[in-house]
Amino acid sequence: MNSKTVLITGASKGIGKAIALRFAREGFRIAITCKSSKSELLRTKAEIESMGSPCLAYVGDMGSYPAVAELFQLINKTLGQVHVLVNNAGISHIGLFTETDINTWNTIINSNLTSVYNCCSQAVPDMVRSKEGKIINISSVWGICGASCEVAYSASKGGMNAFTKALAKELAPSKIQVNAIACGAIDTSMNSFLSRADRESLTEEIPANRLGKTEEVAEFVWQLASGNDYLNGQVIPLDGAWV
């Protein structure tokens, strides 16, 4: 059993779930969260525990500072210090900017960007004290180049990318690495709204001629969490040469 703890936000399904199961294979103590999909989160928890890893499942909004503070109190009490933080929680929104009201904007920014601040603010002090830690942010290629009809989402991921680079510079002297994975089109329920024709058209745009797999993102996260300590402050696309 690994003595280290990983926190993966937004882990009831999709990319987050795949990441959690990847760390379970390595025997990590695991904390997972979701905002509302409690039944799916508990199924993920059961899968993790069946692999022999202790798991804490927490239902709450990572965009809420009090909720994140409560989460970390529970983690510290049951699993110990968070050594690896994977900020995966987030939502997408497609629509014209002129039809994006302030409530939608705030919801997206809170879910995708403020959540990263909240979790890092809780995890970083212990990482600094122990002089070790990995923070991996799950971003998007739209945070690099922007997407029409996804202004709020693109802005939130662009903010995450800048946050990644800036925080890495602050924490590098404490032997903490902060990196981001800028995902392209990954085959998850987030893309389930696409019609068959739209999906085929999207696939044709991607030089790799397919959507990415959640397991591929999970493996990349594991490589960043367990690999080269000199790799720091990077936003790395994982998009099949799409963008």
UniProtKB/TrEMBL annotation:
Gene3D superfamilies: NAD(P)-binding Rossmann-like Domain (3.40.50.720). It comes from the Bacteria. One of its GO terms (biological process) is monocarboxylic acid metabolic process. The keyword Lipid metabolism applies. CDD domains: SDR_c (cd05233). Keywords: Lipid metabolism, Oxidoreductase, Steroid metabolism. This is 3-oxoacyl-[acyl-carrier protein] reductase.
